[in-house]
Amino acid sequence: MTHTCFTCKVEKPLNAFAPRNHKYSKLGIHGTCRECQNTRRRAVHTKGADKAVNLKIRFGMTLAEYDALFKEQQGCCAICEAPQTGLNKNLAVDHCHSTMVIRGLLCDNCNRALGQFKDNPTILTNAFNYLTKERPSAKIIPITARPDAYRKKGTKCP
Q1: What is the location of CATH 3.40.1800.10 in the chain?
Q2: What tens digit of pLDDT does each residue of 10-36 get?
Q3: Which top CATH class is 1-49?
Q4: Nearest CA to 58 among 84, 39, 72?
Q5: Which of 100, 41, 56, 102 is nearest to 92 (CA)?
Q6: Would you tell me which CATH number, out of the four given (3.40.50.410, 3.30.750.24, 3.30.470.20, 3.40.1800.10), belongs to the domain 60-130?
Q7: For residue 158, is pLDDT > 50?
Q8: 39: part of which helix (H) or strand (E)?
Q9: What is the pTM of this model?
Q10: Which residues, in sequence order, are CB contacts of 105 under 8 Å at separation 6+?
């Protein structure tokens, strides 16, 4: 039995792939062959590794393609629209983890938020609905004014 590596696109025997126990791994192996994984690790973990090399190894993307996407997004996060100039890091390449299709460039906060929501549109929709839900006017009790019994671990707040 064989499998095609996501990175090099070469069909290889299953023993060329590291085992993987993950719910999305139908074959029980990594999607990238051991050879490509090792090449990626060496490049990514090299001190002062070149950005172009990292982009190519991690996402199959050239620096010119990154720059074109950056320009298309006007140097801003695709979700919150924060400009990169106001951030401590470069915009991250957001991609689908199962297909490796690049979706856009995100700031660190938005990239991590998508990860926390497991890239699941249903969960994101539920979060949006929760945030925009109309609530009846109610007396808001500041946390500091609540009785101590409600603040102890294992008790439910009213």
Answers
A1: 60-130
A2: 999 989 998 887 766 677 888 889 998
A3: alpha beta
A4: 39
A5: 102
A6: 3.40.1800.10
A7: no
A8: helix 34-44
A9: 0.59
A10: 66, 69, 70, 73, 77, 78, 91, 92, 93, 94
